[in-house]
Amino acid sequence: MQSFDYFIFFIFSLIYYVQFVNCASECINLDISIIQKVEHEGFRREIKWLIETASPTNEVWQESNCKLCLKLDVSNGMFVNPDEIAELNRTQKLQIFLDGNVDIEAPAHEASEHSVYFFLNGLDIARLSVKLPVHLRYQRGQITGGYGKVPLRKPSLLVWCPKHLVTVCGRGLKVEAPCDVAYSQVCVWKNHTYQALFDDVELFVPVGDLDDYPLVSIVSLLLGCAGCVYILSILSTTPL
Ligand SMILES: *[C@@H]1O[C@H](CO)[C@@H](O)[C@H](O)[C@H]1NC(C)=O
Ligand SMILES: *[C@@H]1O[C@H](CO)[C@@H](O)[C@H](O)[C@H]1NC(C)=O
């Protein structure tokens, strides 16, 4: 009888073990593609991302309780306006968190970088779109003027599954980021690879004569005076 008990115990342990391993090894295959478009010209642009999920279905995703977040690092050549972000947060039903201090007056060489996080919670992940207004900063001026180039970084797609035993397939570097829009805590997200259906872009920005306006005017004034003096000297030395 004793050995039979052990046998039953062994069988149950085996079943439990097999089930546990099965659960743990089942991961969600998250297959996402992103299209990016930049609209408008000049200093005010709008970036649009169309995010499409081939797998899993939205129901499976919502049940998994996993979170998706789109993160954009904004380089010092541009900035997002905190007021506009707050407005989008209210009207677009997107939860947006802005990390970093934004000086909207600073020219590019004096500005610091910041990051924008879009928490894509409770949205239909089959197809969703996100837009972000950005402003290009004045570049350090050259007397010749012309155009400066500001590279636009690719957004990172972060995933985090708070429930135990639910994971998203694939390896990805761990990234620390706020858990939610209120920044209640820092969570360890996974940097998930997605299909980027767009090329790297550089935004062209007019290089301001604005920065150097006083210098430019002084130089042109001096050149003008020199011209006058030269002409006068020729006139005065030429015998009439
Ligand atoms: C966005 O709204 C949430 C509340 O829904 C708020 O906690 C958060 O601070 C807002 N973010 C910004 C950038 O205004
Ligand atoms: C995520 O990975 C991509 C490419 O592997 C990289 O360019 C990006 O900087 C990473 N994002 C973060 C937040 O670490």
UniProtKB/TrEMBL annotation:
Principal subcellular localization = endoplasmic reticulum
> Residue span of the signal peptide, if any?
1-23
Q: Which family does it belong to?
A: Belongs to the PIGX family.
Report the SMART domains cross-referenced here: PIG-X
Residues crossing the lipid bilayer are 213-235
| The protein's annotated pathway | Glycolipid biosynthesis; glycosylphosphatidylinositol-anchor biosynthesis
Cellular component GO terms, alphabetically? Answer: endoplasmic reticulum membrane
What is the official name of this protein in its record? Phosphatidylinositol-glycan biosynthesis class X protein
Q: Where in the cell?
A: Endoplasmic reticulum membrane
Species lineage, top-down?
Eukaryota, Metazoa, Ecdysozoa, Arthropoda, Hexapoda
Keyword check for Transmembrane helix, yes or no. Answer: yes
The record describes the protein's role as: Stabilizing subunit of the glycosylphosphatidylinositol-mannosyltransferase I complex which catalyzes the transfer of the first mannose, via an alpha-1,4 bond from a dolichol-phosphate-mannose (Dol-P-Man) to the glucosaminyl acyl phosphatidylinositol (GlcN-(acyl)PI) intermediate to generate alpha-D-Man-(1->4)-alpha-D-GlcN-(1->6)-(1-radyl,2-acyl-sn-glycero-3-phospho)-2-acyl-inositol and participates in the sixth step of the glycosylphosphatidylinositol-anchor biosynthesis. Probably acts by stabilizing the mannosyltransferase PIGM.
Give GO terms for biological process. GPI anchor biosynthetic process
Matching entries from PANTHER family are given as:
PHOSPHATIDYLINOSITOL-GLYCAN BIOSYNTHESIS CLASS X PROTEIN
Q: Which UniProt keywords apply?
A: Endoplasmic reticulum, Glycoprotein, GPI-anchor biosynthesis, Membrane, Signal, Transmembrane, Transmembrane helix
Annotated InterPro entries = PIG-X/PBN1, PIGX
Q: How does it sit in the membrane?
A: Single-pass membrane protein
